[in-house]
C-alpha cells in the first residue's frame, strides 16, 4: 500500500511538475509575504522569549537554540508538538497548538529575517548546480 502511495506521488510529481521535496519537507514560498514585525509581536505575546530568548538564542532543557535551527526544522518541530502527545513535550505542545501556520511562518520571519524564503530558495538553487567538469570535460558523480 505504501509503495502504491509513493508511486502515485512520484507520478503526480512528474505529471504536474510538483516538487517531491515539498511533499516530504516544509517549504516556504517566495510569493508569500512574511511579516517579521507580526512574528515578533506573536513571539513576545505567546511568551516564547521566556524560554528561548529574545532572538532564539537560549537553550531550554534539551532543545536546540532556535537561531541555530533552519526554518524547516523550526516549522517541523512546532507542528510535531501539535501532533504528538508526548509527556516530555506537554508544555511546548500547549503553546504550539495556539499557533496557526501563518503565525509560525511569521515567527520564523522574525527569527531568520523577512527574506528568509529567498535565501532558502537561493541556497536550494546553488545546491542543485552540477559538479565541476574534470580536465577532460566530463562530470563526476
What structural category arises from helix and sheet content?
Answer: mainly alpha
CATH class: Mainly Alpha
| CATH topology annotation | Cytochrome Bc1 Complex, Chain D, domain 2
What global shape is seen? globular
CATH architectural label: Orthogonal Bundle
Distance between the ends: 33 Å
User: What does the oligomeric state look like here?
Assistant: single chain
| Largest β sheet strand count, sense and barrel closure | none
- Taken in chain order, the helices and strands follow as HHHHHHHH
Unreliable spans: 15-23
Tally of helical runs = 8
Number of domains: 1
Number of strands: 0
Measured as a percent range, the helix fraction is 55-70%
Radius of gyration: 19 Å
Mean of residue pLDDT?
75
Describe the protein.
- The protein is an all-alpha fold.
- It has one domain: Cytochrome Bc1 Complex, Chain D, domain 2 (Orthogonal Bundle), CATH 1.10.760.
- The chain has helices at residues 2-16, 20-24, 36-45, 48-52, 71-83, 90-96, 101-112, 116-127.
- Helix 5 crosses helix 6 (90-96) and helix 5 runs antiparallel to helix 7 (101-112).
